[in-house]
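Researcher: Hi, I'm a grad student and pretty new to this. My advisor asked me to get structures for two proteins we've been looking at. I'm not sure of the right format, so I'll just paste the first sequence and hope you can take it from there.
Model: That works fine. Here's the first sequence with its structure tokens right after it:
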Amino acid sequence: MTMSIAGALPTAPQLLCAFQGRRFQDRVLLRSAHALAELHERRAEIGDSMLVAEIDCRRIELVDDINDWVEQELPQHRSGALLHTESLGAVVDRMARSWVEANQVIDHDGAGSDNTHKHWYHLAELVDGYTDLVIDVAGGRRRLPEQ
């Protein structure tokens, strides 16, 4: 797999591979993405609100880790660049949640169900949005919010 056009940022397919547990060993952002997917899987399986709160705290830490890494590794174009509404860490967290939900629905409802189609379509929209964001950040047309 190739690097994204933003250099240090992974492509959407690389993120999806990281969610699955493949090809993330030496990349900070991809390790965090994998950990987010694992947390979303655990969160969906438990009913204890205290454990859910602990998982959510860890997710916040991982989102912050991603945002800190982005702030250190990516130059931000300030002049003329539109501000994106959420951080890259938040975007990756939403993609991880959507990936987990789509996989759970396909396991539960089967590949041909309308519910499965809805969840996979939503994930595809997030993938497209992530790709557009990476292209816009690399091109200086969009900037990410500061922490």
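Researcher: Oh nice, that was easy. Here's the second one.
Model: And its structure:
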Amino acid sequence: MLIDLAIAAVLVWAATEDLRRFRIPNRAVALLAGGFLGASLLQGHVGLLLVHVTFAACGFALLIGAFAARMIGGGDAKLLGVALLWLGPESALTFAILLLCAVLLYTAGARFGLVPSRTTNGRTRIPFGPCIAAAWLVVMGLQRALL
């Protein structure tokens, strides 16, 4: 429970910073990544650690490609990579569906000027941090509800 609260606090901080500055703090990503390592070792989930690290590394390689193609920002790629680390393959589909819903809702809000966005070279850009955080938090809540 304390781990969940700490994750939630860091995610809210990262999302808030992304909303305000269109930047996700590296410290937030580092805290989340280190927190996964620490939580896995403390709880004796070494097998889970290896599976999740492998899954996240593969996903992060794809995210770097999206970053190189200027589809997402570097902070978004890092935050998504650490989300994959925590959520693993067992929750990836649920996370992806929730993330898509969050992005669609945010994009609609941006279209109507209800949420922060930026226009660069004729393209509207949104901060993905809040969408990532929202989807991650809902997955965490669903996981706790099913336990």
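Researcher: Is there anything I should tell my advisor about the second?
Model: You could mention this: Residues 8 and 137 are 7 Å apart (CA to CA).
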